[in-house]
Amino acid sequence: MEQYLAAANSIITTLVREGVVTLPLLQAVVLCTFVDIHSGRPHRAFVTLGIGIRLAEAVGLLAEPSDQLSPIVQEEHRRVFWAMYMLDRVAGTGRSLVQSIRDEDVEVQLPMDEESFAKGMMKKTAPLIPPETDEEADSSEDLGIVAYLVRILSVWGRVVQYVIQGKTRQRSTQPWHPGSDFAAIESALLQFESNFPKQHRYTPETLRQRVIGDEARYYAGPWLIMQFIYHTAHCLLHHPVFPTLRLQHIWKKIPGAFLQRSSDMRLVHSRWIVRFIRDADACGYELMSPFMGYCVCMRHPLEIY
After folding, report:
1. Looking at the structure, do residues 150 and 232 belong to the same domain, yes or no?
2. Chain segment 278-289, per-residue pLDDT in tens
3. Which of 71, 79, 118, 164 has CB 3.0 to 4.6 Å from 122, enough for a Cys bridge?
């Protein structure tokens, strides 16, 4: 594996120096980044991905592809971008390794479902940021599991920026204030759950059906990691250490009801992560994503408090 990875990185470097940017080159960047993350080399993955994102921006991958391309090629362009976007949100989960792609700059529609892609259909999907109206909530359209994974990673990025990296958009630093970043992020998490189609929601029977057979390759992995991210986002948002470090100067003014509610939320969502691990194991589904391990590590110390 290592010799192939080294050869791929060498070819990528040569092509970049020559100014050759093609879709296969960007796909190779995504694969190399993915391998580095899974091999425990986050800093190298971050550098490789950063180069890939700049190349993607240079060729206009943050915007919708040309209508002159075939539907399949258009979707391939979108999926390469969304792969980079998801890796950016995973790799940028730290105090120093920050995210490179801003949600506000993304004009690409969400990836279509696997069935439509396999048929080579031209399909209009939804934008990354859900509309503020109730139009989507009232719609019964299923965007596909990968599209929902992209959206929860968008919210996850906001949680990381707020909790770990200490970046705020609003002036209010009091998380219990209705106009705070805390309130806005929590609202986004609840809105995500509200827009999540019924057919994708959790039941033990549905999980068992999804992890067995040909569908497991395309569905079970994205579905499980989406569930892990959703519940870990709640755990991180209500973390007993990170947010309160910025509130030490007003510690005595923090409402007791807010602290109690945060404690309850941590407990509820941390238990959901354990439940998914047990259910996946009972179904014989092996959890291999290192990011799931990260989610478990973020959840584990919370039960101490």
Report:
1. yes
2. 888 888 888 888
3. 71
